[in-house]
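ok so for the tutorial part 2 we go from a plain amino acid sequence to predicted structure tokens. step 1 is just haveing the sequence, like this:
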Amino acid sequence: MITSYDIIKTMLRTEKSTGLEKSRQYIFNVATAATKIEIKKAVEGIYKVKVQSVNVTNVPGKKKRVRQRIGYTSDWKKAFVTLKEGSKIEVA
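step 2 — the prediction. this is what the tokens look like for a chain of 92 residues:
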């Protein structure tokens, strides 16, 4: 059985994500097979907040070169979660 912690891998903490917190938006690295509804339920369950909307984007892997070989980093999915008015995730 898949749990909320399997769906939400990490919260992304960058300059862009920190700036979006003022507008109640948070960015998460999520499982590639996760749907918007699963992401919404997982965030509400883990952080005990109310989610207004979820937008997702698939991030393709980048081309990397090690000596003469060319490879790719893994593809991953990014979720932009907007919380309802009055909800907030406390970040340490």
